[in-house]
Design goal:
The chain has two domains: 6-13 and 259-356, Aspartate Aminotransferase, domain 1 (Alpha-Beta Complex); 18-257, Type I PLP-dependent aspartate aminotransferase-like (Major domain) (Aspartate Aminotransferase, domain 2). It is built from 13 helices and 14 strands. The protein has helices at 17-22, 33-50, 63-74, 86-97, 115-124, 146-156, 177-180, 206-212, 224-231, 242-258, 260-281, 306-315, 342-356, and strands at 6-8, 55-59, 78-83, 101-106, 130-134, 136-137, 142-143, 161-165, 184-188, 200-204, 283-284, 295-299, 318-322, 331-335. It is globular, with a radius of gyration of 20 Å. Bound molecules: pyridoxal-5'-phosphate. Pyridoxal-5'-phosphate binds at residues 11, 62-64, 87, 134, 138, 165, 167-168, 188.
Length: 358
C-alpha cells in the first residue's frame, strides 16, 4: 500500500486487508433483519474469545466512552481507582467528572499491582462500591494481576464492582471473564482486536446489570439498561457504525480461525522476542513480573533520538512509538499486538539494529 508505515505503535494497529475491505460494503438499515443477523453472528464469537456468557456491548465509541459507561452504570457513589499510568489516571478522572467520589491509589508508574494492594486499599475504604483499574497500562506496558485481584475481590469484597479497562490487553491475552467474575471489562477496537479505531467492546455481567437498575443518572448513550433492551433483539439502541460491524464480524472469524490458544501464544512469543532484544540493547522500563504481552516499554538508556529513529524507520515503512507523556524520550514503546507476527517483529528489530549499528 502506498505510503503505509507498518504500525508497531500501541494503537491504532495493523488491520488485515480482508477486514479493511469489509468497511466498504453497501449500507443496510440498522433495524433491518440483516443487521440483527450481523450482530447476532458477532456476539457468540466475542463470547467465545472472552470465555463468557455475559452481555456483549458493541459500542460505536472508542474505549474512553466505555470507561465512562462503566462508571456511570456501576459506581453508585464512590470507587477506588488504582493509578499506575496515564490511562488508569484517566479512569479516575472520568469517575470524578461523572460526579462520583474517586479515591486515588497511586502506584509508581512502571509497576503493576496485585491483590494485596487492592485488599489494603479496600480495607481502608470500606464505603466504596466499585474499583476501577487498567489491566494493561499502555503508557508503561505494565500488566497487572487481574486473576489474583478478581479472586481476592470475589472472596473478600463480593459487593464491590470490578471495572476493568483492558483496552490494550483484550484479544491479545487470555481473559476468562466468567471465571474472573469481573463486572465490566472493556476494550477499544484499535488495539489487539486489530479493528479500525472508533469502536469498542465490553462484557457486562448480570451483577453489573442488576446494580445499574438501582443507579440513577446513567445517561442515555451508554445506558447499560438501554443496551440490554435492544441486545435481546440483536440490535443497538442507537445507530451503530455498520462498517465496523462488518469489519468486526470478519475479524472475529479470523481470530477464531487462528485458534485462541495460538493467538495468546503468538503474543507471548512476540513479547519474549522484544524483551530479549530490549534487555540486550537497553533496559526494560516495566517492573519484572508485570510486563505486558502486547507491548514493551523500554528505558532509553542510550539516549536514542526516537524521532530520528522513526524517520529512518519510515524509509523502511515502519514506525514505533515514543514514550507516553512525561515518559517521552525517557522511554519508547514497541507494540506486538493484533495482526503482527514474529516475522514483523524480526523485521522491525532488524531494521533498528541496522539503523543504530547494534
Ligand atoms: C489502557 C488504555 N485505556 C484507554 C485508552 C483510551 O482509549 P480510546 O483512545 O480508544 O478512547 C487507551 C488508548 O490508548 C489505552 O491504552
Amino acid at each position: 500500500m502506498a505510503d503505509h508505515k507498518k504500525l508497531f505503535i500501541p494503537g491504532p494497529t495493523e488491520v488485515a486487508p480482508e477486514v479493511l475491505a469489509e468497511l466498504s460494503r453497501p449500507m443496510i438499515g440498522h433495524r433491518f433483519p440483516e443487521c440483527s443477523a450481523l450482530i447476532g453472528s458477532i456476539i457468540p464469537l466475542v463470547q467465545e474469545m472472552l470465555y463468557t456468557k455475559n452481555m456483549i456491548f458493541l459500542s460505536t465509541s472508542s474505549g474512553t466512552g466505555l470507561m465512562e459507561a462503566a462508571v456511570r452504570n456501576c459506581v453508585r457513589k464512590s470507587c477506588v481507582s488504582f493509578i499506575n499510568g496515564a490511562f488508569s489516571k484517566r479512569f479516575c478522572q472520568i469517575a470524578g467528572a461523572n460526579g462520583k467520589q474517586a479515591v486515588a491509589v497511586d502506584i509508581p508508574w512502571g509497576n503493576g499491582f496485585s491483590a494485596e494492594i487492592v485488599d489494603e486499599a479496600l480495607a481502608a475504604n470500606k464505603d466504596v462500591d466499585a474499583i476501577t483499574m487498567v489491566h494493561n497500562e499502555t503508557s508503561t506496558a505494565a500488566m497487572s494481576d487481574l486473576s489474583g485481584i478478581c479472586e481476592m475481590m470475589r472472596e473478600q469484597y463480593p459487593d464491590v464492582s470490578i471495572l476493568v479497562d483492558s483496552v490494550s490487553g483484550m484479544a491479545g491475552v487470555k481473559i476468562e471473564v466468567d471465571k474472573l467474575g469481573v463486572d465490566v471489562i472493556l476494550a477499544s477496537g484499535q488495539k489487539a482486536l486489530a479493528l479500525p479505531p472508533g469502536f469498542g467492546v465490553a462484557a457486562i455481567s448480570e451483577r453489573a446489570l442488576e446494580k445499574a437498575r438501582t443507579i440513577e443518572n446513567r445517561g442515555f448513550y451508554f445506558d447499560f439498561l438501554a443496551v440490554e433492551k435492544t441486545y435481546a433483539k440483536n440490535q443497538t439502541h442507537i445507530t451503530p457504525s455498520i462498517p465496523h460491524l462488518y469489519a468486526m464480524k470478519k475479524q472475529m472469524e479470523l481470530i477464531i480461525e487462528e485458534g485462541l490458544e495460538n493467538r495468546w501464544n503468538r503474543h507471548k512469543q512476540m513479547a519474549g522476542r522484544v524483551r530479549a532484544w530490549a534487555e540486550q540493547n537497553y533496559k526494560i522500563f516495566t517492573q519484572e513480573g508485570y510486563r505486558s504481552e502486547t507491548l514493551t516499554c523500554i528505558e532509553n538508556t542510550r539516549g536514542t533520538d526516537i524521532s530520528a529513529l522513526n524517520k529512518e524507520l519510515a524509509k523502511r515503512e515502519m514506525v514505533i512509538s515514543n514514550g507516553y507523556g512525561d515518559l517521552k524520550d525517557k522511554t519508547f514503546r514497541i507494540a506486538h499486538m493484533g495482526q503482527l507476527t514474529m516475522a514483523d517483529i524480526d523485521q522491525v528489530l532488524g531494521a533498528i539494529d541496522e539503523i543504530l549499528g547494534f
